[in-house]
Amino acid sequence: MSSGFTAQPLPTWRRAVLKVGSSLLATPDGALTGQHADALAAFVTASRQAGREVVIVSSGAVAAGRGLVPPQAPGTGGTGLGGRQALAALGQTRLVGLWQTFFDAPVAQVLLTHDDLRNRRRYLNARTTLRELLALGAIPVINENDTVAVDELKLGDNDNLAAIVAALVDADVLFIASDIAGLYTANPRTEPSAVPVLDLDEVLPVHLASAGGAGTAAGTGGMRTKLEAAMKAAAAGIETVLFDGRDAACLARMADGVLTGTRLRAPRSRLAARKYWLRHAPAVGCVGVDAGALEALRGRGASLLPGGVLGADGDFARGDVIDIAFEGAPFARGIAQYAATDVRRIARRHTRDIDAVLGYSYGETIVHRDDLVVLPDPARLP
């Protein structure tokens, strides 16, 4: 097995985010290469054939841009922010083009900044777009919008972006492909006594302290950022897997559900973490529903559509947490896809009428089933 890592089962998953670092996509002189992407893409293809969904968070745009300009060109060394932004702009299409060569399915480029994920409305818009892409059978390839994200480009940290994306798309697991086999007790490149860490229940400060910085010239994140990403993912109930993305045999085993790397566990399941948050988040409004919607949400795990909505109380905005009530008794809670004023206008309407009534549409649901939790059984409900 790989570098002392013995085989263990992968966590059960249906949807995953795969983060691929620059070190796997760039040659030593900084040009883009598909040498290791081939095996990574084969893993994605095998997973999709098994009925799973994969979102790729890929670094490498700056490296791709560097390979397109003469070595003496200003800024190609990547030391200046403007130069790196220009290289990223040049390299984005090459990066997406590289991934497309490995798939028959369409590849969709999605560029995000952390501001897109902090702003609730933009967060929901990104979430809706990614859901639609997956429903269409596309493979989203996500990167930071380096050409405009000044602060994020300075950090250059797609590990943490991948963790945020994993929560955004409700992934079951975050796969982080690196140029090292997994987590060790110390840096194995400098400490011969370092031993593999196969399984970790919780990332602690001692683990962060033993992690180094960037491991290669092309990469901008090291093991520390991967552990930070794992902590973010764990908070959302998402496990993280660290493995060697250069090892084709390791990837072939992963396609069969076997890991030779490090498994970083989450304290509770993704669904449990999300339900816990929704149940305890303060609701800022309420929508009333009819008996049909009550049965659909409680009995069938459906989304809340406008046809079953009777009205809305409060002045909530899109993205706020709201209660869902039947005859005045709240029985569920979720994240509103529409503001209260919009809900009142489309209540009792068919989903096909939303665009005509509002002049725009955020989708057919008032509350999507992935953003909804049924509350403990209230005594007053039928």
Description:
- Pathway: Amino-acid biosynthesis; L-proline biosynthesis; L-glutamate 5-semialdehyde from L-glutamate: step 1/2.
- The chain is an alpha/beta fold.
- It folds into two domains: 272 residues, Acetylglutamate kinase-like (Carbamate kinase); 93 residues, Archaeosine Trna-guanine Transglycosylase, Chain: A, domain 4.
- Helix content is 36%, strand content 19%.
- It has 14 helices and 15 strands.
- The strands form three sheets. Strands 4-5-3-2-6-8-10-7 form an eight-stranded mixed β-sheet, sandwiched between helices. Strands 12-11-13-14-15 form a five-stranded mixed β-sheet.
- Helix 1 runs parallel beside helix 10 and helix 7 runs parallel beside helix 9.
- It is globular and about 65 Å long.
- About 3% of the residues have low confidence.
